[in-house]
Amino acid sequence: QVQLVESGGGLVQPGGSLRLSCTVSRSIVSFNFMGWYRQAPGKERELVALITTNGVTTYVDSAKGRFTISRDIAKNTVYLQMNSLKPADTAVYYCNAQSPTSYWGQGTQVTVSS
Rounded to whole angstroms, how far apart are CA atoms 73 and 56? Predict the structure, then answer.
């Protein structure tokens, strides 16, 4: 059973930064993709950023230039560095691993508010 554990969420003011972490119970390079998704109240879950086995990254337009997905293979951990946060970024953020079976973490709340 694969387990994904997210951490790093919290309350931050507009313009602030947070770094989310997702630690996986097996090697992250065994998955085709690792990604971060988010779900705001009343909205569907949406992709924020992906990183492939080869390290290629993809971002949703609203995250480009502000968010960075990265990984530490030795620690089986994927990160999402979020800068210049906006109230519209408020959501529960989920880590996903695809192998092609899809595995999800429990989610971490990010609230951007003054």
Answer: 14
| 30: region left, alpha or beta (phi > 0 left; psi from -120 to 50 alpha) | alpha
| Cα dihedral across residues 18, 22, 57, 45: positive or negative | negative
Helix, strand or coil for residue 28? helix
pLDDT tens digit string along 73-112? 999 999 999 999 999 999 999 999 998 899 999 999 999 9
Question: Checking DSSP bridges between strand 4-7 and strand 102-104, what pairing results, if any?
Answer: unpaired
Share of the chain above pLDDT 90, in %: 97
Residue 21's pLDDT band, with cuts at 50, 70 and 90, is very high
Tokens of 77: 């951990």
Dihedral angle at the C-alpha atoms of 21, 25, 26, 32, nearest 10 degrees?
Answer: -50
